[in-house]
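Continuing from yesterday's entry. The apo prediction looked reasonable, so today I'm repeating it with pyridoxal-5'-phosphate included to see how the binding region is handled. Same sequence as before; SMILES copied from the compound registry.
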Amino acid sequence: MDDKPASHGEHHATIRSAMIDTSSKLVLGPFQDAPGYDKAMELDGSDPLSRFKERFVVTDPRLIYLDGNSLGRLPDKTQDLVAGVVADEWGDRLIRSWNEGWWDLQLRLGDLLARIIGADPGEVIISDSTSVNLFKLAYSAVAARPGKHKIITDDLNFPTDVYVLGGVAGLFGDDYLMQIVESDGVHGPVPGLADAIDDDTALVSLSHTVFKSGYTYDMAELTRLAHESGALVLWDCSHSVGAVPIDFEGAGVDLAIGCTYKYLNGGPGSPAFLYVRKDLQDELSNPITAWWGHSDPFAFDLEFEPVSGIRRFHTGTMPMLSLAAAEPGIADVVEAGMGEIRTKSVALTEYFIELWETHLASLGFKLGSPQDSAIRGSHISLTHDDAWPIARALIERAKVIPDFRAPDSLRFGFSPLYTSFVDVHTAAHRLRTLVENEVHHEYASVKATVT
Ligand SMILES: *Cc1c(COP(=O)(O)O)cnc(C)c1O
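Holo prediction written out below.
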């Protein structure tokens, strides 16, 4: 019945791999002759942060990683550090390690991070996940404003934030509500927020830099608006910490949270940070009344008595390997300083926007981020009708890793410690070549779980 020649399948495979090979070469470059290359070289030559790039593990030099806003790269030091923690602190010292640095590590790393977010020692801990920290602080804030029934957020916030805030409102009862203020899809709806925040508002919670468009709020302005109505404010800094300057003290912020695995390069699922302004710490209560927040955990008393200060926002035993792994990434950002980091971040994103205008806009890409860098973080979204197949093709054929955010956004994260201007130039030209040659059409039906 089968009259196909025996070699048919093989023959077909050869043709296909030859085809992939040619177009991979085509989209990979090099693009030294393409416009803008000299400028990229010049900018890299005068970059005061260039020394940091070599501190990260690079296994494939041709890969351009533009997803550091979702999972930062692995610092070299982290590999050695984790190996040491496993061998010495767990393997050798065992339980004794709790008294030899583990117990206070959340506070010590919090104090380190405090230096780049305008906080004092004792105002920050690294603990749990961003979602859990959001729950703890949002609940404690609403409980601290009895008689006020509203939590205000916007439609640019990360979904987990909206789910948690809605869940918190629900726990307080039917007369509580979360109000989601509508935006234009790119810019924070500041006038709408100003209208929505009123005397019945207990809490205003927003992302400092929003995850899709990269719009960045004026933290001081929104905090003032919330305070004028007697509300507390809780900022999620997941997409800004380590990339955008933050000054909690200067802005009068009450509460904040954020990931350490994005621009802080702490590792997949590394514990998040949590900030509570000093004078509020003893006024607020952690709704998860767990033993690490007890005034004397090793008394093993059955009565819960919260400890004074930031420690009351602890929960239970921390994943020490993940916590320890977060230190080198945070230390690098502290060493580089937020001034230099912001200067380079703005230059990287402005350069990418320039390349979009000259090479990508005509191919159907639209800017999904604010054009003005004063209100933008360190990532840029481009929208395109074929965003999903383009993202797949970019990753698999062009060795450029952005991410895709439904329905039509490609996000490019620029991590000032390891993204170079030549990286940006090469990525833009790989993207251009790929779309010009319609390579992405081959990826129209590919699916993936994590985008
Ligand atoms: C990345 C991110 C999160 C992730 O929360 P996890 O609890 O770590 O999964 C939450 N909020 C914002 C704004 C984020 O950018």
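Comparison notes:
- The domain at 16-46+337-443 is CATH 3.90.1150.10 (Aspartate Aminotransferase, domain 1).
- Residues 129-131, 158, 160-161, 207, 211, 236, 238-239, 259, 272 surround pyridoxal-5'-phosphate (CB under 6 Å).
Will overlay with the apo model tomorrow.
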